[in-house]
Amino acid sequence: MSGIISVCSINALEQAAANLRSGGLVAFPTETVYGLGADASNEVAVKRMYNVKNRPANHPVIVHIARIDDVTYWAEEIPDYAISLIRDYWPGPMTLLFQRTKNAGDFITGGQDVVGIRIPAHPLAENLLAEFRKIGGMGIAAPSANRYGAVSPTDANAVSQELLEFLAAKDQIIDGGPCAIGIESTIIDCTKENPIILRPGAITSEMIEASTGIVLAPDKLENIRVPGSTKQHYSPKAKVLVSKSANPGEGFIALDDIETPTNAIRLISPRTIEEYARQLYSALRQADERQVDSVSIVPPNGDGLAMAIRDRITRASEN
Q1: What is its EC number (predicted)?
Q2: Within a 13 Å sphere around the CA of 125, how many CA atoms are in the beta-carbon half?
Q3: Rounded distance, CA 148 to CA 229, Å?
Q4: Dihedral angle sign, alpha carbons of residues 126, 131, 133, 138
C-alpha cells in the first residue's frame, strides 16, 4: 500500500491518474467529502471499489468529470434548466441525474437508465480529473470513501482508518486536508420536465429556483436509487438519538448556544450552520473513538443547508 500522499505535486497527481487508468483505486478530497475513485469505464476496477466499500451492486455511484463538455459522453437529453444549473453551480457540490448513454454501464448506474454526474470544486480533485482526462480518462466513479452505510470521511486519516485494511498495495489516498463543506452533494433529477431534489445538500432549493426560474414542487417519492438514499445511512457505531437531553457519559452535538446536559460529553459546538455541516461527520467519528454508547443531537432549524444536515442526522439515527 502506497499510503497517504500528503505532498500533492503535479507529478504525484499524474501518478495517481495513471494508477486509476491501470485499474487502481485512489481516494481523493472534494469540497463535500472524500471519495474513493475508480475509472468509471473500467468495470473490473469499479467492481473492486464496490467490494472495498461492501456496497450493494444495485446502489449507483456518481461520475466525476473534468470538463462540462464531457457530460454528453455519459448523458443525453440535457434540459435547458440543467444547462442553467451547470453554468451557475459547477464546479460545485451538485450532482445532476440524466438519461445515460451507452458509455455509462450498469456497473456504475446500479442497472438504472440514469447516471449521476458532477464536477467537484476542490483544487486537488480538479487537477486529478484534468490529469486523468489528459491520458484518456473520461470520468472517475467515486462514492464516499468509507464502508457502505458508515459515516462519510472528511479528512484523509478517516479514510485510512475506514478502508486501509481493504485496499490493495497499489491503491492510494490523497490528503487534501479537511473538506470545506462536509456533507455530500445535492442530487437533482434532471430527467423530468422540472428539476427534483433527490438528496439535499449545499445547493439549496432557493439556489435552484434562482438559477432556473422554476418553482420547485414539494418533495415526492421518486422511484430512482441515488447515493445516500437508504433509510439508514451515515451511521456511527454509537446509537444516534435526536434529543435535547443526554445521559451522563453520552455524546452531545448542538449549536453552541444550546447548553450541554449535565455530565454529557460535548463533541462539537458549531457557531453557524456551515460549521455544523463541516464538523458533523468528524464528531460522529469522534464519538466512536471515545467509545460512547450513544450520541444525542439537536438538529439545526431552518431551510437550505440546515435541511440537508437534518436529513443526514435522521438517517444516522436509524441505527
Answers
A1: 2.7.7.87
A2: 30
A3: 12
A4: negative
Distances (CA, A) of 274 to 26, 173, 218, 306: 28, 26, 24, 9
Mean pLDDT by 10 residues, the chain (319 residues): 71 95 97 98 98 94 98 96 98 98 97 97 97 98 94 96 94 96 97 94 96 83 61 75 91 96 96 98 95 95 94 84
Query: In this structure, which amino acid lies at residue 125?
Result: A
Our CA angle for 8, 13, 15, nearest 5°, is 125
Q: pTM here? A: 0.93
Distance of alpha carbon 221 from alpha carbon 198, whole angstroms: 9
Classified as helix, coil or strand, 99 is strand
In whole angstroms, give the CA distance from residue 260 to residue 253.
9
The whole-angstrom separation of Cα 119 and Cα 91 is 5
Pair 264, 251: CB distance under 8 Å:
yes
Domain 4-212 adopts which CATH fold?
A: DHBP synthase (3.90.870)
Superfamily holding 239-316 = Threonylcarbamoyl-AMP synthase, C-terminal domain (3.40.50.11030)
For the chain, how are helix, strand and coil distributed in percent, rounded to 5? 35, 20, 50
By three-state DSSP, how is residue 98 classified? Answer: strand
Asked if 28 contacts 124 with a C-beta cutoff of 8 angstroms, the reply is yes
Task: Give, in order, the Cα–Cα distances in Å from 174 to each of 5, 119, 155.
Answer: 5, 18, 10
Q: What is the side-by-side order of every strand in the sheet holding 294-297?
A: 239-242, 294-297, 251-253, 265-268
**What is the pLDDT, as a whole number, of residue 231?**
52
Nearest to 87 by CA among 71, 101, 73, 104: 71
Report the C-alpha gap between 95 and 91 in whole angstroms.
10
Cell 437550505 belongs to which residue?
Answer: 304
